Amino acid sequence: MTLPGMQGMMTSMMKQKMKKKGVASIEELRELCIEAEVKLIACQMTVDLFDMDQSEFLDGVEYAGAAAFFEFAGESDICLYI
Hints:
Structural class: mainly alpha
Shape: globular
Largest sheet: 2 strands, parallel
């Protein structure tokens, strides 16, 4: 199986598991984050490393390197690093 095919399968499995466990969908969670004014920051190094196109990211996503992120995270009340 190719990597894109594997990613699609894993995405499908994750969505099924979330639905089965009663967890909100990714779309619903994103909307809640927007309403709560959560700041979404993508790792610039990872974006560059994997040749990702920023135009394919969700609107409102910011980009920062690790040093900038950790400076921001140190001043935040809550921080989730994935």
